[in-house]
Design goal:
This protein is of the alpha+beta class. Helix content is about 40%, strand content about 30%. The chain is built from 31 helices and 36 strands. The strands form eight sheets. It has a five-stranded antiparallel β-sheet, with helices on both faces. Strands 11-10-14-13-12 form a five-stranded antiparallel β-sheet. Helix 1 runs antiparallel to helix 7 and helix 7 packs antiparallel against helix 8. The longest helix has about 55 residues.
Length: about 950
């Protein structure tokens, strides 16, 4: 059938219109894609420009540090070689550091490879060193290059003029850093752009020629006009051009799109030309379209009106690992994660079928092997004549790697913040060339300041430093800078906002050095150790008092740990015998390493016995010292904690050489020398086999309060040995005297108890020795000593270790032990407890005006009032100074009720402490500030509970004193 001529022109005109519309669509799509590519390229260029700028700033830091040292030394720099190498170790990109007094290069580290630069005058070389003269004129750092060095290789050179007193007339010369371009570019990771699919050029406008100088480019040349980012360098600007390595325009993709447009145009013309062949032509066109669509190198898919996939590109299949048969006909949402599927079905697809487009929709696709891909999906819809969306064209961009990098960076930053907060650490960072000091809020809040109240300069903190600590801090700081120590650590005092000294432990490390080893950057942490320092001071005072007490004793004192090693050894100066070995040779060693085997075995058996039954052991032994034999009597007792577990062992060694000699002499002369018997200071009496007293010396009568007539002929056990110390009856069968009469063994006991005639008792050290004549046992001799004073000394030692000597309240050591027990009990019972941290208000004024005697009276009175305000099972402790702690146990299981109970007791204490005190003739009024912190179980460690209560107490003081505040976690 022939068409009319007008029909041909109609077909041609309509085809032309379709062709133009298709071309316009291709133009818009490619323009959009190019715009997106330009945005991504610009972001990559901007990000890399910042990295280059930061790396250059870091690598130029050593010139500032060297300049500061030159100014500090008024033109002299000691050990330039060592200092430069320490800086260069932190900045490997810096290949050399130089000093150029008066502009002439005189010192270079390392010298090898740079010999040609020695003697080079930077101020007279018109051709190469215009920047050096510019540096002197402006007084600022200038950067020369990149250019070829005299000694070979390409580098940039940073020159900083040094003025000793800040005036042009005091110009000293230059500190110089040579930065090799390859190392600098590698450190800045410029080549990473190629891994991201970009080509690049790094260039500048040459200051002499005005032409573009490219000094770094990718292995793949730029194939398209790049996007450009710039950044300032000293006295210049560098530019970074970036473009996709494949160019802005994807030729294969554009060819496909143009071909599709032509194909659609021909199909449209064919429909008009042959209406009856329209379906066949459309089908053929559709096949060709799908073939080209599926072969495109991008991730594409199309869905129909029901959301089923009707076309998919091979790249889509390759990326997700599916075959075409596994995909066609299934819904696109089937390949999404559950969260992305819900977002697609409920939000994206309804909006797409309403508007006909969507852009940069974040989805998560699930590959066939199960791994997750993060993508951005953009789609446009194809409508039928009725305006309904019948098919989509979706472009899928894989952003998985970018998401992983962003997530990793966020997680690293969060972990660091959590670690610092958990350790209660302040973090700081010092840029040495600029002296810029940055820190987190904890650095200043531990000093009582709010963020922003102390400036961003080290000098602002040094003004608060205790003068006595300045030298030590400076020594540690410069030792770290020079590389003499692996890190920086110092303890020093800083003035708190409340005009008190806060102890700080600073630790840091140099994290950036140049090629010469000069430090560029230091970072570290601050920790408030005031409480630790206070405890150390208290311990030193308590140990001094304990040492004084021990020094007054007659016996040798030995302390063992639970492993049987000597941890303390005291030999009194007035001892009757010389020391067995010097103290330093004995500490840290076991008895087997010090004593003869037979003596060491006695000690070990005693310690084992104590571990088994908890009872002290007494034994005797002979020891050769300096050629003479000495007889010793040793009493070993367990050192127990409040829970009854041994923490060590205390041994008191008495020299009984003379005592035993006297005892033997008494036994030998018992019948012939009564005067000798009466002269002995120990109590001595003899018994026959029936345990009746047959003689008694005056010392025994004096200690017991009986007359000789009241004792002789009577059985001694029911007379003055009838009950133990706690009042329980003492069976005669267990009496050591009766036992010796039965078996003939010598017995010694340090824990016996005798009763005087007036009914009072006293502790005795008892030795029972059998008496034999002709091989027949006749009786026994009992020698005893009143050890009341020795027992009192042992109790005083225990009291000094666990109680405050002024108020007799538990000290910090006992408080911490009881608090640990209370936390465990709270966990078992599910009840709350509370810590009340008290500080007497304006206590220092009383001490300063009336003296410490009045202050001590007030502390004792306050302790008594505190005890009257709490239950017997509660603990009241004095931490030192005017600080007290009250620990309440077994409060309510409900936090609200427990808070109310603790608050009521706190108010009761405030009221009791606020009543007038009668201190001698002086009437004084004193209030208290109380901080309260609840606890339940072992959720919070002991030290942190006290710190929280302490913080709440300071809040009470800040609120005007005579107040109560509860700790509230942020």
């Amino acid at each position: 059938m022939n068409q009319k001529p007008g029909h041909k022109w109609l077909v041609a005109g309509a085809a032309l219109v379709v062709l133009l519309l298709g071309a316009l669509l291709c133009f818009l799509v490619e323009k959009y894609r190019i715009s997106e590519a330009e945005n991504l390229s610009q972001q990559a260029s901007d990000r890399m420009s910042r990295q280059l700028e930061q790396q250059l700033t870091q690598d130029l830091t050593p010139v500032y540090a060297l300049a500061a040292l030159v100014r500090q030394g008024q033109g002299k720099l000691q050990d330039f070689d060592g200092t430069a190498r320490s800086f260069m170790a932190l900045s490997p990109e810096v290949s050399a550091l130089q000093l150029a007094p008066k502009g002439v290069v005189q010192s270079i580290v390392p010298l090898s490879g740079h010999e040609k630069a020695i003697g080079h005058n930077l101020l007279t070389d018109e051709k190469r060193n215009r920047e050096a003269r510019l540096a002197v004129q402006t007084g600022r750092l200038t950067l020369a290059g990149p250019f070829e060095l005299i000694q070979g290789g390409e580098a940039v050179v940073g020159r900083l003029p040094v003025f000793l007193d800040g005036t042009p007339e005091s110009f000293w010369g230059f500190t110089i850093a040579l930065i090799r371009m390859p190392g600098f570019l590698k450190a800045a990771r410029l080549a990473d752009l190629e891994g991201l699919g970009y080509s690049y050029e790094l260039w500048r406008v040459h200051p002499d020629t005005g032409r573009r100088q490219v000094f770094a480019r990718s292995s793949t040349p730029l194939s398209a006009e790049p996007v450009t980012a710039s950044f300032d360098v000293p006295n210049g600007r560098w530019f970074l051009g970036v473009a996709p390595a494949t160019g802005w325009l994807d030729a294969s993709r554009l060819a496909t799109e143009i071909f599709l447009v032509i194909l659609l145009t021909l199909a449209f013309g064919w429909v008009l030309h042959r209406h009856l062949r329209a379906q066949q032509a459309l089908a053929e066109s559709e096949v060709r379209y799908r073939t080209l669509y599926e072969a495109t190198p991008a991730m594409l898919h199309s869905i129909d009106a029901q959301g089923r996939i009707i076309s998919v590109s091979q790249q889509w299949l390759n990326t997700l690992g599916y075959t075409r048969e596994e995909v066609i006909g299934r819904k696109s949402s089937d390949f999404l994660t559950e969260e992305s599927r819900r977002h697609a079905v409920e939000t994206v697809l309804p909006e797409f079928f309403r508007t006909g487009s969507c852009a940069d929709v974040p989805y998560q696709f699930v590959a066939k092997d199960g791994h997750i891909l993060d993508v951005l999906l953009s789609a446009t819809g194809e409508r039928d004549p009725a305006g309904r969306i019948v098919r989509s064209l979706a472009i899928v961009t894989d952003i998985t790697e970018r998401k992983h990098l962003e997530l990793a960076a966020a997680q690293n930053e969060q972990r660091m913040e959590l670690a610092l907060a958990g350790a209660d650490l302040g973090w700081w960072d010092l840029d040495l060339p600029t002296e810029r000091f940055t820190y987190n809020p904890r650095v200043v809040t531990m000093l009582g300041y709010a963020p922003g109240e102390i400036g961003p300069s080290v000098k602002d903190f040094l003004e608060l430093l205790h003068p006595e600590d300045a030298a030590g801090l400076s020594s540690a700081y410069y030792a770290c800078l020079k590389g003499e120590t692996p890190g920086f650590q110092a303890e020093y005092r800083i003035r708190h906002k409340e005009e008190r000294w806060t102890w700080i432990l600073s630790r840091g490390k140099v994290v950036g050095r140049n090629e010469q080893g000069r430090a560029l950057r230091m970072t570290g942490t601050n920790l408030d150790i005031s409480e630790r320092k206070r405890i150390e001071t208290e311990l030193r005072k308590r140990e001094a008092r304990l040492a004084t007490l021990i020094a007054s004793m007659q016996d040798i004192v030995i302390v063992y740990d639970t492993d049987g090693r000597l941890v303390e050894y005291f030999h009194p100066q007035h001892a009757h015998r010389p020391a067995y070995r010097p103290r330093e040779e004995m500490l840290g060693k076991t008895n087997e390493e010090i004593l003869p085997a037979d003596v060491a075995r006695l000690y070990d058996e005693a310690i084992v016995g104590i571990v088994m039954d908890g009872k002290p052991r007494v034994f005797e032994y002979k020891l050769a010292i300096g050629g003479d034999d000495y007889l010793s009597e040793t009493t070993i007792s367990p050192m127990l904690d409040t829970a009854g577990f041994p923490t060590g062992f205390l041994a008191l060694v008495s020299d009984i050489t003379a005592e035993r000699a006297a005892q033997r002499e008494i036994e030998h002369l018992a019948h012939t020398n009564a005067l000798l018997l009466e002269s002995v200071g120990e109590g001595i009496y003899g018994v026959d086999l029936s345990s009746h007293a047959i003689f008694v010396n005056p010392a025994a009568l004096a200690m017991l309060g009986f007359s000789e007539a009241e004792l002789l002929g009577r059985e001694q056990h029911p007379l003055f040995h009838h009950h133990r110390q706690d009042g329980t009856p003492y069976s005669a069968d267990a009496c050591p005297i009766r036992l010796t009469l039965n078996d003939g063994r010598i017995r010694h006991d340090e824990n016996e108890w005798f009763w005087r005639k007036d009914g009072t008792g006293f502790p005795v050290s008892l030795t029972v020795t059998p008496v034999e004549e002709g091989g027949q046992r006749k009786g026994a001799v009992v020698v005893f000593r009143d050890i009341t004073e020795r027992k009192a000394s042992e109790e005083r030692i225990h009291s000094l270790a666990f109680y405050d000597p002024l108020t007799h309240l538990p000290n910090r050591r006992m408080l911490l032990d009881r608090l640990g027990t209370a936390l465990s009990a709270s966990a078992r019972r599910g009840t709350y407890g509370a810590i009340l941290f008290l500080d007497l208000d304006n206590f220092k004024i009383l001490n300063d005006t009336k003296g410490h005697d009045y202050g001590d009276l007030l502390l004792v009175a306050a302790a008594e009032r505190l005890l009257s305000c709490v239950r017997s099972e509660d603990t009241v402790a004095r931490l030192g100074g005017d600080e007290f702690v009250v620990m309440l146990e077994d409060l309510s299981t409900e936090p609200g009720q427990a808070t109310a109970e603790a608050g009521a007791i706190g108010r009761k204490i405030c009221h009791a402490l606020a009543e007038d005190y009668a201190l001698h003739e002086y009437s004084h009024r004193c209030t208290a500030s109380i901080g309260i912190c609840l606890f339940q179980g072992n959720k919070v460690e002991v030290g942190r509970l006290l710190k929280r209560a302490d913080l709440a107490m300071y809040q009470a003081k800040s609120a005007g004193r005579n107040a109560i505040r509860f700790f509230e976690a942020d």
